Amino acid sequence: MAISGSVGLWTDTFPEDLLPQLLDLVIKSWATFPQPSPYDLEVPIAKNFVVHLRRNQNRSTHLFRIDWEPTVLDEKGVQKGRIDIRFTHGYSPSEYFSCECKLLNKTDKQGRWGSLAGEYIDEGVMRYIGGKYSGGENGGMIGYVMDGDTDEAVKCVNEAIENRKQKLGIEGKAELKKSSIRARCQQTKETRHLIKNGWFTIHHIFLPVTNRN
């Protein structure tokens, strides 16, 4: 029996040629996204942001689906976790670009400021290093910079990376590098990690909260 459709849609790797459009969609959509309050958490922010991303999708260029908190199962049916935001192009359950979302530079209701850069690495980046999520050779981190100071957020994340260099599988200077996709954009950075299956690139997107009243 003949099979119609594209075999390429069954690949296990999210197409790298879609990453520029994906990152552009995230950055540009944040510019028109109703800004969260200083005390919001990442879960409701991510949920509302997914709705906004879907509204801004262009069917001719953004050739992927966007899902909020889908469950990831291993080959034995055991739940490995939930992805904050998942971008899917094909049919294979292993084909996706995931984004873990974390707060940065947050002040609590008692007025205490914290960078939260350690949590960004330990509870975000390390999920890729430990193989919790697959999706190919690329993954994403979104940092909601709650005080709007992306320069300070990058500085604190760099310090957290340096303190965890060995377990992060980073060679050379342990820091956020200029994005190979959006080199002129200060909101996007990269880190490359040597993990079990080879080199893995994490695309870091820093989204500043501009409404801080």
Give a description of the structure.
- The chain is 28% helix and 26% strand.
- The strands form three sheets. It has a seven-stranded mixed beta sheet, with helices on both faces. It has a two-stranded antiparallel ribbon with strand order 2-3. Strands 6-7 form a two-stranded antiparallel ribbon.
- Helix 1 packs across helix 2 (42-56) and helix 3 packs across helix 4 (150-163).
- It is of the alpha+beta class and 213 residues long.
- It has one domain.
- Mean pLDDT is 89; it is low at 1-5.
- A hairpin with a 5-residue loop joins strand 6 (106-107) and strand 7 (113-114).
- It has helices at 19-32, 42-56, 117-129, 150-163, 165-168; strands spanning 65-68, 71-73, 79-82, 85-88, 97-104, 106-107, 113-114, 138-145, 177-178, 188-195, 198-208.
